[in-house]
Structure of MlaD family protein:
Amino acid sequence: MAEFRIPGMSAEPATYRRRALAFLAGVTLLVGTIVVVEQAIPDDSMQVTMSTSTVAGGIQAGASVVLNGSQVGRVTQVSVPVPDVYEVTLELDPERLGDSTDVLTDTAMVSYAPENLFGIAAVVLYGQPGGDPLRDGSTFSPPEPQDATLTTLLHNLSDLQNEAFDPYVGDVLDIANQATQGLLPLFGAVGQIASDVADTQVVTPRETLPQYTQLIAQVRGTVDDLLPGIKQIMDWQAPREPGYLERSQKGLEATAGPFIDDLTRLLADDALGQTAPLMPVITEVLQRVQDTFPDARRNGIQIATLIERLRRSLPDAPGGPVLNVDVVLKSAPGLAAALGLPATRTGGGQR
């Protein structure tokens, strides 16, 4: 096989192998030294165990720990020692904590929330006054953390969609459709009426508006007429007298109570039944009266006619009632002459 080498930089294959081995040995030595140095340097991180009953989705090893808005560590482990109990190991950086070490106590509040706009979940700590400061190896049990992670939000939206929206939206749309179909005839009638009014209107607004104005003026006059009566009612002083309301209430109570009760008892079957024995006697008495006066109605009419004639024969005069007497003097001409009456003639003469 032909070899292509650059002049002045050519070497034997054994030389290249030795150089590669030397390079690999140096890299291995450097990495080992770094590891040894890291192990030799003391670890200043603080590990705190949080015991809780819930862990949000996305809270796992590597998740960030935020205290009062600043990232101060990460989650190193999430374990379940017993059912429904989670232990979350938090590795905190004392340098990042700074003065917050005294604020972070066993009374701290915890929530699960997105760390950034991408929705990466993080453990958010909120310092509370009181309590003992957390040290390396401490364990604390905060109240049930509030879950505001994006994963929980999506789960809730899914539950809302599956359990609330989907089962009932069809019924809601069906009811809306039925209501719309039921109102369509009404809308059609309203539209037809409006169209008919527009098509048949022959009176211009110039004529109708003054009539409306006159009508409003008449209504105003009617209201003005009603105002005095309303004012008199408003000025009625009786209800303002002391004890009026009490007397009115007592009167209404007496009407609605004893009076109605007595009237009910009076008209009841027991009370009316007591008068039943008197009915035959009363009926017999009325029959006897009717038999005694068989022409009572005719006699009454004749008496009323006589009284009316007497009233007409006694007209009112300035000096009092005057009796009008029209007597036919057929057999006493002298008396007629003395009274100044015309003489009576036989054979159709005057009276």
